[in-house]
Amino acid sequence: MSNQQEDRWGILFCPKGRGTKQRERIQRVLEERGIQYDFVQSESSSSVERLVTMLIHNGYKTIVVVGGDSALNDAVNCLMREERQVRESIALGVIPNGVLNDFARYWEFKEGNVEQTVDWLVKHRVRTIDLGCIRYTDKHGEKQHRYFLNCVNVGLIADVMNLRRQTRSLLGSRKLSFVVSIFLMIFHRMDYKMKVRINSDTVNRKVMTMCVSSGPGYGQTPSAVPYNGMIDVSLVYHTGMLQVLAGLWLLVTGRFLNHRSVHPYRTREVVVEEAQHALVGVDGRLIGKPVGSFRMTVEQEVINFLIPD
């Protein structure tokens, strides 16, 4: 492939709804800045990995995902399946356009501010970032692993995210779906019997939710950074409904770790020996209920990510 071809961006557009206006706006901004690019559009979440793999194998060295955390997660998992030499030759960028854009927001990429985002991406400032990895056994008894940029949620928050996705598909509004999800949460299981090993500690008790993060963790691990070779953990013990509401307020205002039921850790490995009936979400997407024990680790400096100037 020629250098000229290698300089072209491969752009994967993951539409929200019909998405026509957003696609046209992004294309207009790219063309105004003289960027050479090829545009592919996913039909569904299942097509994202196929299209990213196609872009990789066609030699694109800059791959930009127009989407949210789940689409980015698909992209990094595609990259991690490639040989190291191939992976290290590619830079991954994002134009936030998803249901959840937490990882993009961490870097101050803002949804709707396409011009500023593209101007930053053009400068091609690369940061090599860490990924977390969850290894588990699925319901069919097969060993699986999945990388994550942001976080793994175990328990209540994974349940809320599942409810939010379901209600959003019915209601259409993000804010309304979140409010309805919180209301429906009242009728859901509020604690899970867990046994978790973190560093030299073993937690063996009822836990409401656990967040294991390489990134910001939707506000649950506000001190986590995706480049220090560590993963942050927030364990939330069972508490009353008033304390849940107080915790949600602290989460929204960025002071989650101040809640008395939140117990933070920093480590390189988390082993969950037991998590009865708890759903598990990876970067906002459910993987279901792993069978038996599962563990989360960190892989240091494995993805080239385009960051703001």
Nearest-integer average pLDDT? 85
Beta-strand share of residues: 25-35%
Shape: elongated
- Uncertain residue ranges: none
What is the number of E strands? 15
Radius of gyration: 19 Å
Distance between the termini: 29 Å
Structural class: alpha+beta
The number of helical elements comes to 10
Percent helix, as a range, is: 25-40%
The biggest beta sheet reads: 15 strands, mixed
Could you spell the SSE succession in H and E letters? HEHEHEHHEHHEEEHHEEEHEEEEE
Folded structure, characterized:
The radius of gyration is 19 Å and the shape is elongated. β1, α2 and β2 form a beta-alpha-beta unit. The protein is of the alpha+beta class and 309 residues long. It has helices spanning 3-6, 20-32, 45-57, 69-80, 84-88, 102-106, 114-122, 156-171, 174-185, 241-252; strands spanning 9-13, 37-41, 62-67, 91-96, 126-137, 143-148, 151-155, 192-198, 201-213, 231-237, 262-267, 269-275, 280-282, 285-288, 294-306. The mean pLDDT is 85. The two termini are 29 Å apart. α3 packs across α4 (69-80) and α8 (156-171) crosses α9 (174-185). It has a 15-stranded mixed sheet that branches.
